[in-house]
Amino acid sequence: MKRLITLKVNNNTYEVAVKPNQTLADVIRCDLRLTGTKKGCETGECGACAVILDGRPVNSCLVLALQANGSDILTVEGMETEKGLHPLQEAFVRHGAIQCGFCTPGMLLSAKSLLDEKSAPSEVEIRTAISGNLCRCTGYQKIVEAVQSVSENSEGQIGGE
Ligand code: FES
Ligand code: FES
Prior knowledge:
Oligomer: single chain
Number of strands: 5
Number of helices: 5
Order of helices and strands: EEHEEEHHHH
Mean pLDDT: 95
Largest sheet: 5 strands, mixed
Helix content: 25-40%
Low-confidence stretches: 156-161
Radius of gyration: 16 Å
Bound molecules: FE2/S2 (inorganic) cluster
């Protein structure tokens, strides 16, 4: 039997009827139609489904929608504002940190979560923060460089090179 839950996603409030076994990833993609969140392994290994849930990055394939009732969620669609793309999104483009793009939403959210906590992370901290996000294309170096360019360790300004 379905139960009604409330989710705040990218500052919009949704009421959704969910099945007990339905994952948050499924609700985000299928019910809310926010398909920027990807599903890869569905076993918590690849990070493609990462979202920020109440301030923390989680693999949404491992969270039951019922568990997320009342939560505040950020997906990749919510990173862009009326001012334009988030500086991390711009940096990924500028640094060639995107190839097929399948890992990119999860990467961006893991990186954002890190920078929200620590504005000037070391390279090791960046690599650790994205260690749960698998990328088959880029070799990670360009992703790390993109995140570094947005951090306060960067010699340029926020979002600059
Ligand atoms: S789809 Fe969730 S971690 Fe791979
Ligand atoms: S850009 Fe293809 S998996 Fe990362």
